[in-house]
UniProtKB/TrEMBL annotation:
It is found in: Cell membrane. Residues 80-292 form the ABC transmembrane type-1 domain. It is a multi-pass membrane protein. This is ABC transporter permease. PANTHER family: ABC TRANSPORTER PERMEASE PROTEIN MG189-RELATED-RELATED (PTHR43744), POLYGALACTURONAN_RHAMNOGALACTURONAN TRANSPORT SYSTEM PERMEASE PROTEIN YTCP (PTHR43744:SF9). It comes from Paenibacillus agaridevorans. One of its GO terms (cellular component) is plasma membrane. It comes from the Bacteria. One of its GO terms (biological process) is transmembrane transport. The keyword Transport applies. Pfam families: BPD_transp_1. InterPro entries: MetI-like, MetI-like_sf. Keywords: Cell membrane, Membrane, Transmembrane, Transmembrane helix, Transport.
């Protein structure tokens, strides 16, 4: 009887913990998801109506006018494609260059690999500062060019250390040696063995790199003066922080929309257009996550468990 009561008590405690833990996680998930849902609702609601408040769960006056204004803005469309190009090229280039360095440093036959790794670690911990970096960009003629988004971010020391550890601990040395016996060189081993075997890791690190490229507004704000070369986060930050934000809705766009009778231009406000712009900025990254989810967890856990 005592053991039965003790088992019943443990079962009740486990159930209580499970219920409380589930409720806390649901509350936390709601607090994380609701701000995004609120922005989505405001982006589909008429701006003038939204100024009256009272909109929490769904649009009160549904409209696509906010998105029409954003998508008809040539500057925003150009900034969107700049963000797409820098994210794709920057992510692929960074993974390629960083993985090459990591593969070289993972080989025990590389002379001086320990001092080289220590050098990379030191420059990661102690940077030269913003002014020397800016002077270097000027000397390389990267200021006010598209390549200022690409070349400075081609190599990541942290990602290199993670890749090097993964290459050394998770890729069997016997397979590498057998490929060498068959006449394969380092380049062939890298492309036919290292990269395919490390796809989960590359997917996880690539996702982090892509999010960093997509959300980066600092580079475009300080190193690019040409508005046609600024990415979407930089343009959005400038619009949201500038006193000239009301100029975002141009008279020509409103007149064109009025003639086409697509929506009510008088109901569009700067705030409602901002909400639509935020959604368009966030949506591409949200769409990428489901496709990389199966690689993400496996890639993060690679090297964490040893047999």
């Amino acid at each position: 009887m005592v053991e039965g009561r003790r088992g019943l008590g443990q079962t009740f405690s486990n159930r209580t913990f499970t219920v409380v833990n589930t409720l806390c996680m649901l509350l936390f998930s709601f607090l994380c998801a609701y701000p995004m849902w609120y922005i989505l609702v405001l982006s589909f609601n008429e701006g003038q109506d939204a100024l009256m408040g009272g909109i929490y769960w769904w649009p009160r006056e549904f409209t696509l006018g906010n998105y029409i204004v954003v998508l008809s803005n040539s500057i925003i469309a150009n900034a969107f494609w700049i963000s797409v190009l820098r994210t794709v090229i920057g992510t692929v280039g960074s993974l390629l260059v960083t993985s090459m360095v990591a593969y070289a440093l993972s080989r025990s036959e590389l002379p001086g690999r320990r001092p080289i790794t220590l050098f990379f670690l030191l420059i990661m911990l102690f940077s030269g500062g913003l002014i020397p970096f800016y002077i270097q960009l000027i000397q390389l003629n990267l200021i006010n060019t598209f390549w200022v988004y690409i070349f400075p971010s081609l190599f990541s020391v942290w990602n290199m250390l993670v890749m090097r550890t993964s290459f050394r601990s998770n890729i069997p040395e016997s397979v590498v040696e057998s490929m060498k016996i068959d006449g394969a060189g380092y380049v062939r081993i890298y492309f036919t063995l290292i990269l395919p075997y490390s796809m989960p890791l590359l997917a996880a690190l690539g996702l982090f790199t892509a999010v960093g490229h997509w959300n980066d507004w600092f580079t475009g704000a300080f190193y690019v003066q040409d508005i046609n070369l600024q990415p979407l986060p930089t343009y959005l930050q400038r619009v949201m922080s500038s006193v000239e934000a009301s100029n975002m809705i141009s008279a020509s766009q409103i007149n064109a929309a009025r003639e086409a009778s697509m929506y009510n231009p008088a109901a569009v406000t700067t705030k409602s257009v901002r909400m639509a712009t935020i959604m368009l900025t966030t949506l591409p990254i949200l769409l990428v996550y489901p496709f990389l989810q199966r690689y993400f967890v496996k890639g993060v856990l690679i090297g964490s468990v040893k047999e």
